[in-house]
Write a structure and sequence with these properties.
9-stranded mixed sheet; 4-stranded mixed sheet; disordered C terminus
Length: 334
């Protein structure tokens, strides 16, 4: 079944600061902060939350359809995604704007300071999910990822109107959304994805209690960084899954997208919540160990062994069986 992935399509300009941001920020003077960080390097990668998730779903053997807006400079990116099994036929190409840009600096603690230029992304509001459904059929799930805010509202409203199951993943846009807007985005969601900071921010902005949020959604998926992930169902079921141990760290950009892609691919393949979260944790750590959000390698044998080492033989076997032979072994960045 198809997973329709809506959200930003961007190129990532990633830099590394050889120090700690926390040591440069003065708590009593944040209102007049004026800093420039001399960085060690600059790399440019394909990214954007929708691009990252669609790529990972494709690599894992899923059936992703990318729904978003890009510029005329998207041709090489399109070829890359299609080689990973991503349907890009529903990407709107702007006649006036370039593909969005994400500019991010990470310090030695993997803390990040970033800016995002929307560019063509602002035209995503012109895409109708009804057109996607009429051309490719009803998707199993629609991911409402961080995007042009108007597009996020329109896609969410359309999911409700068309009866499409959707995952709410407002992530980076939470900072600019009002409480009313956040409530509008998550009402009726099958899944709500946030990290722990975003979850606290969501509660503060909406004024809702956790119980009130849970009455609006089916499952809360809250990632906790090195502490793993909490899964909380509307029926009160609670599951905690720890992380897959990392071999090293390279760049954290896109690990949240990787987790979501792994989790939803696992669910689509019939995995339980726990097993899907375990697969997701592996995909996330593979991205953490790579130099960019789509520069990671999938090796089936290595993946199963790492899952077995982290969660036990039964977990490794169940996840391997669910994925079948669809994920392309050795898939990596060119």
């Amino acid at each position: 079944m198809t997973i329709a992935v809506t959200g930003s399509i961007a190129t990532d300009h990633l830099m590394r600061f050889p120090g700690r941001f926390s040591e440069q920020l003065l708590a009593d003077h944040l209102q007049k902060v004026s800093l420039s960080f001399l960085v060690d390097d600059l790399v440019i990668h394909r990214g954007g939350v929708a691009g990252n998730m669609a790529y990972a779903i494709g690599v894992l053997g899923g059936n992703p359809t990318l729904v978003g807006a890009a510029g005329s400079d998207f041709a090489d990116y399109r070829e890359w995604l299609e080689s990973a099994g991503v349907d890009c036929s529903h990407v709107l190409i702007s006649k006036t704007a370039y593909t969005a840009r994400f500019v991010c600096t990470s310090d030695e603690d993997m803390a990040q300071i970033a800016s995002f230029y929307p560019g063509a992304m602002s035209e995503a509001r012109d895409i109708a999910l009804a057109d996607v459904v009429s051309r490719t059929g009803t998707p199993e799930l629609v991911i409402i990822g961080a995007n042009d805010p108007d597009a996020m509202f329109l896609h969410t409203d359309e999911c409700r109107k068309l009866g499409l199951a959707f995952a709410a993943d407002p992530s980076q846009q939470l900072a600019r959304l009002s409480g009313d807007e956040i409530r509008r985005l998550i009402d009726g969601a099958t899944y709500l994805f946030t990290n722990d900071y975003e979850w606290d921010l969501l509660l503060k902005k909406t004024g809702w209690s956790e119980a009130e949020v849970m009455r609006q959604i089916g499952l809360r998926v809250t990632t906790l960084g090195p502490k793993g992930v909490d899964l909380v169902s509307s029926d009160g079921t609670f599951i905690h899954v720890g992380v897959v141990p990392e071999t090293h760290r390279d760049d954290p950009t896109g690990i949240g997208d990787a987790f979501r892609a792994g989790f939803l691919t696992g669910r689509s393949a019939g995995l339980s919540l726990e097993r899907a979260a375990q697969l997701a944790s592996l995909v996330a750590v593979l991205v953490l160990e790579a130099p960019g959000p789509q520069e990671w390698t999938w090796d089936r044998g290595v993946a199963v062994q790492r899952l077995t080492d982290a969660y036990g033989t039964e977990a490794g076997e169940e996840i391997s069986s669910a994925l079948g032979a669809t994920a392309a072994p050795g898939t990596a960045a060119r």
